[in-house]
Amino acid sequence: MEDNKRTRKRRNTIKSRHQSDTDTTLVNEVLDSGVIYGRSLPLSRINRLIDSNIKRWSFNPEAGDMVSRLINNLSTCLQGIKTTRITKDILDDPRYASYFQKGFNAHWTDYDYGPPKNVEIVGTASLDIVDVYQPQIDVSIELPQSIFNVKDYLNYRYLNKRNAWLCRLDEDLKGLFKNKRNPLLDGIEGSVESRLCFSKPKVWILLVLQSNTIKYFINIYAHVDESTFKHAAMSPVRNNVRTPTTLVWDDGGDTKGEEPMMCPTPSYNSSIMEDLLKMKLKNRLLIAVQRYHKMVGALTLLRIWAINQGLISEEYKQINGCSLGETLVDAACVSDVQDVHHIDTMWNGLSQEILCLILLHIVESNNYPTDIESFPLFLATLKFIAAMDIEKYAYILGAQKAPLDQNGFPMTLKDLAISGNSKNGEERIEVTQNVKKHVSIPQFYFDKDMTYNILYNMTLTFNEVIYKARQTIEVTRDMASPFLYGQLFDISHDPICHHDIKLLIPISPKLDNFDIWELHQAEYMASRVKQTLEYGLGDRLHHVYFRFNSEGVLMVLIGLNDSIQRMTDLGPQTNSAEAIEFRRFWGKLVETRSFNDGTISECLLWKNILPLENDTTDISTSLQRCAQANLNVRILCILLQLKFKEFEMKNMDLQGVDGSYTNSLRVNNGKPVMYMQMPIVEVDHRLVSDYRRKLMNVYNELNGILRSLQNVPLKVSNVFTCSPEFGYVDMGTYTGHHKLLLELETSTKWPNDKNAIVSIKVALGISILKELKRNHSIISKLTEEGDMEIKYKGIKFDVHILCQRQVQPIIDTVRHFNPDVQKLPTDDLLDTVRYYFRSVHIERCKVVALKAPCFSAAVKLSKAFAADCLLPDMEYICEMLNCFIFGSKDFMTSTTASVYTGFTKFLYLVAHYDWLNNPLVIHEDVANYDVLTYRKQPWSKYFWVSTPEDPYCLVPKMPSTLLSKRFVVQCSNFISQLERRHMAPINLRKYFQNNTRGYNMVIQLDNIYRKLKYSTNNETIQLSVDEARYMIYTFLSALQQRFHSFMEIGYNQLLLGGAYSTSGDLKIYAKINPISCIPTGHPKGIWPQWMLELENIKVYIPNIPSIICHIRDMGYGLVRSIVFT
Fold first, then answer.
1. Which has the closest alpha carbon to 724: 869, 859, 854, 831?
2. What is the mean pLDDT of the chain?
3. Distance of alpha carbon 375 from alpha carbon 35, whole angstroms
4. Are residues 1051 and 1079 in the same domain?
């Protein structure tokens, strides 16, 4: 009968990290579509994503659409505007003081304000689509040509008149809202709010329509007919601001007594051309969309990708570069708004319109079939962005790129300028060459005339878009990855996961007396910061990105490269020309050193310059105790102090920045403030420490000695490491035993009985110890289980002998475990192989640590955070999740280059991974996703980490499901705290103390690590660190084994393990299981219970006093008190 028994087959399923539909539905849709781009990218899934993020919309007032009615009412109201005269007095109106440029003779001419020519729907709304969650409709008013003179493109005349027209329109709209019968609201069901917005150099009006539960945002812009001004006058070689106002200073040197260098830039001309070509751009888009219907879907995918990469904010109020609160005309309202400046989502210039134009370039410059799908168009656009080189080429929409000359001009424009034989033309080329050295302006022109640069608002920020496109393309090379969909469209960008340090900088104080519009003042400050950091940090800098707001505040996002570990930066040779600049930049920090090859070079010896030790005497959390000086962070701080002396440096974690932080960027004495947001803790990222160097040298010697032993029954074939100190730097100097695993030669004479195996191990251990003492004078001890304790050159080792005949069947069972046909191995069997699997895990950590030196410190921070969260048995989960982050490409698209970003990604991974459905797969060299087809069993651990040697995660000890879910919530909450800490600094001690509130009982233990003594009533026993740790862990093991179903236990594993010592008692926190307190008719646990009898009915409930007495007896001499909270 047994041979005829048919095995139960498991249904194969493919689950993605973020599963939204059932497997059956997904498979059916894939079969119906017939197209699949990758394992997680079926066409039907992409189409569902597109459909769920866009809404078809077209202008149709008769159909009852509220937005169409509002736009139609607006057009009617505009035609009824009374003609009035706008005079120069509007420039002096205090409400609009910052909207106009009047610092020199702007040659203002009065004009008539009256009905416009027409109202056009532009932008992506003209393609009959809007966003589902933040529907945005752009409307542009065509201003009458008669209000402009022929040369009003000079000296901000056009922008002044345009902005003045919209300001007067805003006054009229606000007047309509004051009337009881507002013609703008005829037929409108819902509320409408009008706001005047400004982002240099243009004003626009925002109408917010609240209809049902949806907010619609209608942007009202202005444009003019294309023939209003001559396009040739807008050439980039022309400076249409006849009085130069744009200043460029050197990178922090003394400029007293020097004349500023004045440089024109093309941003002013492009801002005018944007209005002149608005209708031409609209028609060009409509023609392309009519030919390529899937362009709309590709644009939607690009927008989702940009949001997830942090390039575009999800919130509408940040899309156009200014917050709703900060753009109110009434200045008094700004101070009342406390959350209008969400600095993590400040503007970088990228908009949906720019993405749409780049997509237009893709379809016009390639001969694609008209029925091409959205995803190939999306991928082609990303590849084009990733391949862009804005330092060498200028790009033309729908045409070939043009190489740039040494002056930063496209070749055709240079020839045109030189052919004029104009002295002014030569001066412009020379001046533009200077500005190219300071500010990198990407050039992407709308047409071959090269007058409108569509990227004029992305100076110094487009490089971030290019970099993230390259990272994404690198990920898409493995289309078979089941996680690719999540990386592209589902895993949202989190600023703390990508940057180490944040800076908030106001407008450069040297530019405060000038109102510069051609290029934002903050962009010149960004250029100065970029040059300083790149020269000063060199390869220690991974990236530097910028964000701006309309008030001139600059945010700098800095990512460090912690793979650089050197303590000395070698500069140029002393007799070279570069040495002068090197000494001028670093000042007195430079030292001149000679080397063995005869060279004499300039050097920076950081160990003599920076303090690299932190005072940890008054620190109460594990996260802070793990903090040591991070060399790269300290170098950055000293660099900012050297090169930005005109600022007062303040740390955001010591003094939070309130909602209206723009006012707080200046202190009382008028000196500007540069706010720095440092990592929550610093940590030493260096992989090689003095202790670990000594440990590895002693281990290598001992390994050679053990493998060379001759007069032993079985020779030593391998020595495996089982302690994290061998794989990576853990908690510094370790005073206990380092665990090793000894593999002997294979033999068929090993017995099968467990007790007999222990006897053989003891005999082999005795023979090994005799050889060590006789030939190498190494004194050691042997335990009853056959384990050896060896002390060699001051370092202690705990050596465990591996019996292959005993463990190999268990190893094979674990490696090829099939829950459908095999029984779950018992804990006793798994205990025999835990040393072996621990050695495999340490070897994996060692490989990752060599590839990514910051892995070590990231694990250190992860363990410290888990310890502060009172998560027991957290060592394995912290190590493997960091192995996944640093060694896998299945998570975020960006690479992890620093300790702090690795730690924040650990938090993000714990908080957002789909632990309920999917295992976290750790690969070897070749990715294998077959494990994702495995079902999660009822006995599976909550943190299911699947490795090639243990697919079902059977061997490692992991926290319980309750504490695991609690840890997920704790990581999510801590991420929220990190995101908000610029508003309110985090008190780590107070924050982690709140983690104890969910527990019912606190067991206080005597801190035997302080004096290493164990006292009873009669005697005091001197202990070693290992003996103290053994006592505490024995008590914990007995507590969990006896009361695991009565209460959950949480504790700081680092503190109870003796990683460091505190002055207070050790504490164990217990959460009583309420289900265990329900009266039942039969005893349901091994803890003491009360039997109550009522009307011949016997019930059992926990005997709490007796349980407390049992706990005291189990920890006799160790337990000081038991307190209920």
1. 859
2. 82
3. 11
4. yes
